[in-house]
Amino acid sequence: MVSPSERTGAQLFERMARVVPGGVNSNVRLEVAQRYFSHGSGPWLWDSEGRDYIDYVLGQGPAFLGHAHPRMVAGVTESIAAGMTFAAQTEVELEAAEGLVNALGWPDMVRIGMTSTESVQAAFRLARAATGRRLFLRFRGQYHGWLDNVLINSQDPWPRVASNGQLASSLDESITIEWNDLEAVRQAVAEHPEQIAAIITEPMMLNAGAIMPQPGFLEGLREISQTHGIVLIFDETITGFRLGLQGAIGRFGVEPDLAIYGKAVAGGFPASVLVGSARLMSLFANGTNHSGTFNANVLSCAAIVHALAIMQSTSIYDDVERTGGQLMASLGALVAEFDLQIQVRGLPAAFHVSFDTTDPVTSFSDLQRADSDRYRRLVPHAIDAGVWLTGRGIWYVSGAHDDATNDATLARMRKALANFVEHERTE
C-alpha cells in the first residue's frame, strides 16, 4: 500500500519509469504519464492526490455506462469467482454470443476476442480467404490498431509509417484515400482490378474529428463492394453500442459483411467482437485460423452479457442523447462569451471540439484546418479546473453524465477558459 506522502503523480511516475518504458503501458498515455487515478465512479474520477474530475475521456471510450457501474461490478465478480478460462467453452460465452447476435439484429455469427487490433486482423484474414485477394482499401485518419499493416501517419506526406521499427513494406497491403469521397473509391477499385479483398472504414470517423458520413457515402461503399466482390468491413470499435444498441449500422442503416466492436461492448471491461454473415464467419471452422488463449474468457463474456442487459433495459441512449446534446450547445455558447471561435461537431454520445471556422469538415484533410495546437494548450487548463479531457478534441459522454454534471462542467470550463484567455493575453 502506498503511503499518502508518496501519492503525488510525480513521485509515482518516477517509480513507474524505472520499470515501465516512458512510465506508461500504452503510448497513447505518454502525454499524461504523470497523472495517476485512484478510482472512478459514474462520470467522476479521483486522482492519487484526492482531486476530482468530470470525465469526458472515459478510458478512451469504453466506460459508456460510467465507471464501476454497480450491476457490472456485481455481475462480473460473481461470474469470475468460478474461474476465468478453461480451454473449452462456457455457458456465459454462449449467452454472450447469442445476446450479441440478437441485440445487433443483422449478423449471423460472432467471435469474441480481447482487442480490436486482433479482431481487425481476423476480419482481413476472412476477407482474403473468401476472395483470394491481397489488398485492403482504407481511409486517411482512421485507426484500426497498432500493428504494422494498419498503423499509419496521416499527416503530409501520407500514408507513411508511424513508428520506428515499423516495416514500410507492410503498408503495401493497403490503399489509403480520403474519406467521404466515393469517386476516389471508384478510382482505387478501377486501378486495382480484382486485387482488393476488403474495404474497411469507421462508419463515422470518431477516432479523428467526429466526422459524419456524407449522405450516400456508406450506401455507395455497399454498392461498390457488392459490385466488385469486395468484403465491406465496418470498424465499430468506437461507434458500436455508443451511437445506439445497433451502433452506427442501426443509426445509418447500411449493413456491412463484417463488423468489429470493442470499448462499449463490455461496459468498460476488456473485450472485442467480430461479427458477420455465416458465409464469411463459418470460414473460421473450415481452414481459416483464429485463435487466442483468452478469447471469450469468463470475465469478458460476463461483462458483455451484463452490459447488454443494462443497455437494453434502461433509457441510457435517450439519456445520453439529451445530456450530450445539451452539453454541445452549452459549450458553444460558453466559448462565445470569451470571444473564441470553436466548432463543436458530432453526435451527443461523442463529439469533437476544435478551434476552427464553421465550415464543414468531411475528411481528415478538412480537419487540418483547425488549430489543434491551440486546443492542446487549452486542455491543461481544463484538467486543472477538474474536467478530464484528451488533447485530440474528442469528448465522450456516458450514461452516468446528467444535468448536474453538465452544470458542473460548464462552471469548471468557465474557469478554465478564463485562465486560458488570460494566459494567451500575457504570453
- Any low-confidence stretches, pLDDT <50, length ≥5? 1-5
Total helices: the number is: 13
Coarse morphology? globular
Order of secondary-structure elements: HEEEHHEHEEHEHEHEEHHHEEHHEEH
Helix content: 25-40%
Give the neighbour order of strands across the main sheet: 4-10-9-8-7-5-6
Overall pLDDT? 96
Q: Give the DSSP E fraction (strand runs of 2 or more residues).
A: 5-15%
The tally of beta strands, per DSSP, is 14
- Alpha carbon gap, first and last residue: 42 Å
Topology record:
Elements: H1 9-19, E1 37-41, E2 44-47, E3 52-55, H2 70-80, H3 91-104, E4 109-113, H4 116-131, E5 135-139, E6 174-177, H5 182-191, E7 196-201, H6 217-227, E8 231-236, H7 247-252, E9 258-261, E10 272-276, H8 278-281, H9 298-313, H10 316-337, E11 343-347, E12 350-354, H11 364-367, H12 372-384, E13 387-388, E14 394-396, H13 403-426
Report on the architecture of this protein.
The longest helix has 24 residues, at 403-426. The chain is globular. The model is unreliable at 1-5 (pLDDT under 50). Helix 3 runs parallel beside helix 9. A hairpin with a 4-residue loop joins strand 2 and strand 3. Strands 4-10-9-8-7-5-6 form a 7-stranded mixed beta sheet, with helices on both faces. Strands 1-2-3-13 form a 4-stranded mixed beta sheet. Strands 11-12-14 form a 3-stranded antiparallel beta sheet, covered by helices on one side. It has 13 helices and 14 strands. By secondary structure, the chain is an alpha/beta fold.
